[in-house]
Amino acid sequence: MTRLYSIGDVHEMTGLSVSALRYYADMKVVCPARIDRQTGYRYYDFDDIQRLKTVGYLKKAGFSLAEITVVMEAASEEERRLLMSERMEQTQKQMKRLKERMSMMEWLTSQNPAPEAGHESYRIHQKQMDSRRVWMTETAKPCGVEDFYRQTGVLMAEEMADFQKMRGYLLEETAFMEGKKLAIEGSFISGGDCVSVEKNQSILPKGNYICMTTAIFREDKWIRALSRYFAEKDMRPRIILAVLKHKDFYNWRHSLYEVQILV
What mean pLDDT comes out for the span 140-165? Predict the structure, then answer.
């Protein structure tokens, strides 16, 4: 005679709560071997207990109850393996999304702390730089940052997709030197190691750059300081870049850029 176990016994043997066992029975996932018509008590046999353990494994693997029912009622082992493979592929995609979220959170955390003291002291220094391959987005004519984003709507999506890459702005030289103001000609995102120039790609040339780190959108003191420096040295910029160094997500005007001017 087959031995039967009360719902309390099954709870102790499987660790599943009594309410979960009743829910599984109501959902036809694992039904008790017998229900006493007079008392309504539910009794399970050993096969039911093994099925309940399998349900527990599948739940830990991320299957919903509906999916668990499909897996357990599969017509063949081949069908069951196919269902498991599909779940594994979905889990891998979820893991990729979670890794992307974690990477974004780590980057946000690294950007949020207050920058070190002395970053915005208008200190001018020189730096030798190698060539850099970038994807460049340019405008028909130089403009302010709001007009630039309005003209290049795809830029926002590019920034979100490649948030960890080097990025910045190409600044217009005449406005910088003569108008003493900031005008944007284009923006760029790092393209990796240098290779031959292709469509929409540019090479930021190697050479000696005059640099300063400052919040370029907060005020224009840095423009006056650098333009005065070039006037005193009787030099003309060949290219003016503003490379993002510290993103302030709560006040974009406070984001720090390293202004890099090729001479």
Answer: 66
Domains of the chain: 5-73 (1.10.1660.10), 125-262 (3.20.80.10)
Residue 198 Cα to chain centre, angstroms: 27
- Residue 175, Cβ neighbours under 10 Å: how many? 18
Q: Is the Cα torsion angle 126, 219, 150, 103 positive or negative in sign? A: positive
Closest CA to 84 of 102, 100, 72, 101: 72
With CA atoms as reference, report the closest residue to 163 among 223, 219, 244, 92: 244
**Predicted TM-score of the model (pTM):** 0.59
Alpha-carbon gap, residue 172 to 78, rounded angstroms:
65
Residues 6+ apart with CB under 8 A from 47: 33
More confidently predicted of 194 and 202: 202
- 104: which residues sit within 8 A by CB, 6+ positions away? 163
Rounded to whole angstroms, how far apart are CA atoms 225 and 230? 9
Structure tokens at 98: 């979670």
Cβ neighbours for 69, distance < 8 A, ≥ 6 positions apart: 27, 28, 29
Cα separation, 70 vs 237, whole angstroms: 69
**Locus of tokens 């760029």:** 188
